[in-house]
Amino acid sequence: MASSSSPGIPSSVLIIGSGAFGLSTAWALCKNPRYKRTAITVVDRQPFPTPDGSSIDTSRIIRPDYAAAPYTRLATIAQKRWRTDFAPEHYHEVGLAVTAWGPEQKYVSASLANVNAIGTDKTEVLHSPADIRRACGLEGKDEWGSGSTGYINWSSGWANAEGAMMWLREKVEKLNRVKFVEASVEKILIDHKTNTVSGVRLTNSSELKADLTILAAGAWSASLIDLRGICKATGQVLCYMPISKEEEAVLSKQPTILNLSHGLFMIPPSAGLLKVARHGHGYINPLTVPHPESEDPNETITISLPYTHVDDPSQRVPNEGQKECRDFLTAIYPSLATPSRPFTKSKICWYTDTRDGDFLISYHPKYKGLFVATGGSGHGFKFLPVIGDSIIECIEGQTPEDFQGRWEWPKERIPEEQWSGDGSRGGPVDMVLAEEMAKSRGRL
Length: 444
Ligand SMILES: Cc1cc2nc3c(=O)[nH]c(=O)nc-3n(C[C@H](O)[C@H](O)[C@H](O)COP(=O)(O)OP(=O)(O)OC[C@H]3O[C@@H](n4cnc5c(N)ncnc54)[C@H](O)[C@@H]3O)c2cc1C
Ligand SMILES: *[C@@H]1O[C@H](CO)[C@@H](O)[C@H](O)[C@H]1NC(C)=O
Ligand SMILES: *[C@@H]1O[C@H](CO)[C@@H](O)[C@H](O)[C@H]1NC(C)=O
Ligand SMILES: *[C@@H]1O[C@H](CO)[C@@H](O)[C@H](O)[C@H]1NC(C)=O
Ligand SMILES: *[C@@H]1O[C@H](CO)[C@@H](O)[C@H](O)[C@H]1NC(C)=O
What we know:
Layout: E1 12-16, H1 20-31, E2 39-44, E3 60-62, H2 69-83, E4 91-92, E5 96-100, H3 105-118, E6 123-126, H4 129-136, E7 149-153, E8 157-159, H5 161-175, E9 178-182, E10 185-191, E11 196-202, E12 207-209, E13 212-215, E14 231-242, H6 245-251, E15 256-259, E16 264-270, E17 273-278, E18 283-284, E19 286-290, E20 300-304, H7 319-332, E21 345-354, E22 360-363, E23 370-374, H8 387-395, E24 431-432, H9 433-441
Helix pairs in contact: 1-5, 1-8
Family: Belongs to the MSOX/MTOX family.
Cofactor: FAD
Keywords: FAD, Flavoprotein, Oxidoreductase
């Protein structure tokens, strides 16, 4: 399996998925001298930038505020890179206000304790809706309730996700080490006698072989191996509204505002587009599909998988989601939420959720030659500058100490209804995409 020159180092690596996890891994492999003889291939079902990939969007929040200290540590390292040498032109440090009301306040105070343990610069505790309004420059009276608490960290920011991904892709392409293949993986090649993976079969029946296959297909990963009770795809809503240059000039200086109680957030606008979205429990899209690890097409499993505007170009966010985004905008910027200014675009973006929000970065417990790097759980993007290096550490059996017991393949599968979640999600639960779509259209 290993190349003769460097023991333990695979002579070929195949990465499935050119999203944040896959591309960052390819980059880290290119830069790491131990892999200088390793052939690296990245295969993705879509041309780059993947139109419906979770890593491609106008913006992603970059923050070190986590209720779990290891993520605060790693995000702090990543953020230093965003500020300095990792696509800094795509990073905007305008602050992030995290607010909550009710049970989510626990997550807010735990995050605050973590960031406070690291440093006490530029954070402002917000004790009331009036405080929040002033600090965030909101115009609304926030009629949704009083007694909201939160804090704002002026050293958090957001990144143009698509811009940063393009930046990284170009960097990787320039190194001339990675073969990029545009094709859809149909199946991972498993030898069931030896429980060994030797690569993948594409939908056109061609095979790509490798010593080590890294599955980084984001929310689609569950279509290629059985991740029941470990990862599930949840659809999150995003709505966009065009705004004028003058409005953008004002709003782009305001912090991002994330209300953890209902999960709604607004990232400052850029390129004439304002985005309102929901970090929530999301929609599930249960489908019965052939068991990915079985050669018997009659053996099926039921799992939640993404359904996007690539599958259905007319796809819009269900009314329920559009309405929540709208209500949030009305609460915070009523002057923008007038009837004459509808959202002109909406999309559903898929999280790869795990039971507790921890990533899944691990060898497959059963199949040799298969490594899994996914489970972004709605917070993976900020780690783009560093996650590939961490993934290589895990591949080499050097999982960072504070992530041991978090990133490994879980010991048991837990039914999804028993998942505890990461504590940061608000808003409606148990929504099924097809049902919400049916309500929106009056038909299925
Ligand atoms: C709406 C939304 C908001 C978010 N906000 C934030 C935020 O503010 N801050 C933050 O840090 N994180 C955020 N995240 C999370 C972050 O974006 C993700 O954790 C991260 O982008 C996941 O990257 P990935 O590589 O796992 O998945 P993806 O980027 O989806 O990449 C997977 C790739 O695999 C490819 N693929 C799938 N199936 C196949 C196949 N069969 N064959 C070949 N290729 C295949 C896909 O085409 C895709 O390009 C957000 C996510 C969403 C959806
Ligand atoms: C705010 O975020 C920065 C990272 O950008 C972090 O270093 C700092 O500790 C945070 N501030 C506080 C008061 O927690
Ligand atoms: C956040 O959401 C809660 C619950 O819906 C609400 O009471 C509160 O007013 C909201 N705060 C802001 C700033 O939107
Ligand atoms: C299948 O697709 C791959 C990637 O585009 C290509 O290299 C290969 O030649 C194709 N095989 C067939 C049989 O068409
Ligand atoms: C799958 O089911 C069909 C219909 O029941 C049957 O004809 C076929 O032989 C089965 N295939 C396998 C591989 O078992």
